[in-house]
Design brief:
The structure is a single chain. Helix 2 crosses helix 6. The chain has 164 residues and is an all-alpha fold. The longest helix has 34 residues. The chain has one domain. It is 80% helix and 0% strand.
Length: 164
């Protein structure tokens, strides 16, 4: 019980520190860490966290490439709905093709969707500002998702400590 309380306190402090530092690491949507925690909790105590973490980073990278293609080659909002659908569909198809290599499709989708969720508002309102914000947003999303991975691992350890 003491171990579970200690790990729970560690998770709480870790998440609080993450929220306090969100502006320094370019994470405008720290709630993604909570979404990642929920996803990783589904993996269970014996999940392949490393492969899932790599899959998330690949998903974020695919989203970054997709948004760069949209900014550089396609019409800007609001005349871009068809192009947005095309780039989004191709990005997701690439992720499905990458999943045959053994990467986790759910991790890649979470990374891709997390990245698009974090930059879509900026893309539709001020696409030119993404020239400087696209890469920091990708780093922020990766950090948020990987923090979620670490916290989920700690929470699973809490659950296992309570069940022993």
């Amino acid at each position: 019980m003491k171990r579970a309380i200690g790990l729970g306190l560690l998770v709480a402090v870790f998440f609080a520190a993450f929220i306090m530092a969100k502006d320094y690491i370019a994470v405008s949507s720290f709630y993604m860490a909570a979404a990642a925690m929920a996803m990783f909790a589904v993996l269970g105590p014996f999940g392949d966290y490393f492969k899932t973490g790599i899959s998330m980073v690949i998903g974020v990278f695919t989203g970054l490439v997709g948004i760069i293609i949209l900014i550089a080659k396609m019409p800007l909002p609001p005349d871009n709905l068809v192009y947005l659908a095309l780039v989004g569909g191709v990005s997701l198809f690439i992720l499905i093709l990458l999943s045959v290599t053994g990467l986790r499709i759910d991790g890649m989708f979470l990374g891709w969707a997390g990245y698009f969720a974090s930059v879509y508002g900026t893309y539709t309102t001020n696409a030119a500002s993404l020239a400087t914000a696209a890469v920091p947003a990708a780093v922020g999303v990766c950090v948020a998702l990987l923090v979620g991975l670490v916290m989920a691992n700690l929470i699973i350890k809490i659950a296992m400590a309570l069940n022993n």
